[in-house]
Amino acid sequence: MSKKNYSYWLKQSEQLTFARQAFINGQYCDAQSGATMEVTSPRDGKVLTSIAACDETDVDLAVTAARHAFDSGVWSNKSPKQRKKVLQKFAQLIEQNSDELAVTETLDMGMTINDSSNMNLPGSVECVHWYAELVDKLYDEIAPTHPNAVTRIHRVPLGVVAAIVPWNYPLMIACWKFAPALAAGNSVILKPSEQSSLTALRVAGLATEAGIPDGVFNVVPGYGHTAGKALGLHMGVDALAFTGSTRVGGLYMQYAGQSNLKRVSLECGGKTPNIVLADAPDLDAAADGIVLGAFSNQGQICNAGSRLIVERSIKDALMEKVLERVSLLRQGDPLDPNTEIGPLVDASHLSNVARYIDLGREQGASLQAGGQKIEPLSGNCYIEPTVFTEVSPEMAIAREEIFGPVLSVIAVDDLDQAIEVANSTVYGLGAAIWTSHLLKMEKAAKAIQAGVIWVNSHDHGDISSPVGGFKQSGFGRDKSAHAFDKYTEFKTVWVNLSGV
Q1: Is the pLDDT of residue 1 over 60?
Q2: In 3D, which of 190, 167, 153, 151 has the Cα closest to residue 59?
């Protein structure tokens, strides 16, 4: 048996100490007001610690430090090869501390230790390594102008970048933003969610240990309506990258318009359709993908496959397989490696998910599984994975992002109806289709309004493939080389050679 069993993770959790302060200009510091926020674990309802609650004053200090660092050139003027070396060391330090960070993530927001240690931390490390490796392989351009001129097109860093990240994958999504921003030469201010700030605060110290200069990487924990809003309105922030709800994403666009027209990129909500046609090559594989897509991380994923759109002729056969798999999901302590479904992030979020389950019943959907709050540990954050059938596209559970373990099943007659239903939402983040028919696959991939289309799979990809959405799921792309587009600008230099 591996040493990383239940006992191992319990022991790790008992030995943890948490970084509690903001990180500004290379130093841990209290909020200037002295305000703090309690951190309560959804695992068992116990208070883990209290952390700094930053506001406008702290944000201004962080922006000032970040701007000074950028203008000094201490990071922005380093060669790509020099930045690469430091970021590689940063990735190595995250990897060396991965068990501590995985347990912290599990205690802080409830992600199962299986996911935090085997997916979230390796993905975070890979991300920082990948951008470190990529940065010295990006070339500037020469435009094909007349021979009497040379026109160079340079990709240059923007300056001060604010990264505002959600609570569902706190460290990995933070890495998706700060790794390319730092690699490009920017200074970064990371604002983690108030519901999951602990790994960001710990990683800040690792950034300095890796050799990232003071002021280049800052972390300001705080509430969205104070610290987050202050970053959105600050005249010294050049770009803001946000992942979170569509409602809050809209606020950041307003803040940009009210301030300095800072560049804003948004990765917002989703209501991903998982379409299974009658000619799907493997219903067992489809059922596996459906359960994974709907219930991973307790359904707290922006591209969760929360809508199963299935051709009516195979609905019963597919649902038998899906419900069997749902009944076997192991729910319990997220520190237990055998647990597949842990708690939701907090009791307030559970109440909101429970409200949608009640709405599903009231609006006529048929509850096939789950729907009940349970309490394997204290804390009031656990709810069963829930499946509704007989769902119509007009129902709230089919239209609105629940961000919890709730699957809505919608039966359709053919591919055309499936596409119509898939597009009948304000979101357009991801979509999946299961078919063995090449023309149907291509038709769906072309017609469905979503940033990522999976064929005979769900939520597959790696750091080389971009993620992002259409419609009210936002704009801009995380991951891949395309992420640099958010954190750089093009500068054209026209050199007149007509007198040469």
Answers
A1: no
A2: 190
Q: Which of 302, 311, 340, 381 is catalytic?
A: 302
- Of the CA atoms within 13 Å of residue 488, those in its CB half-sphere come to 20
> Which one of 105, 127, 194, 267 is the catalytic residue?
267
Whole-number average pLDDT of the chain: 97
The band of 379, judged by pLDDT with boundaries at 50, 70 and 90, is confident
Q: What would the pLDDT profile of 139-152 be if each residue is shown by its tens digit?
A: 999 999 999 999 99
pLDDT recorded at residue 272: 98
**Residue 302 falls in the annotated catalytic set:** yes
The CATH code of the domain at 6-268+475-490 is: 3.40.605.10
Is the pTM of the predicted complex or chain greater than 0.85? yes
Q: What is the pLDDT of residues 171-193, one digit of tens each?
A: 999 999 999 999 999 999 999 99
**Distance (Å, whole) CA 42 – CA 110:** 6
Q: Report angle CA 100, 458, 468 to the nearest 5 degrees.
A: 75
Q: Which two tokens stand for residue 365?
A: 């959907």
Q: Which two tokens stand for residue 28?
A: 């841990």
C-alpha R_g of the chain:
23
The two beta strands, 470-471 and 427-428, are antiparallel
Boundaries of CATH 3.40.309.10 in the chain? 273-462
Nearest by Cα to 397 from 387, 383, 411:
387
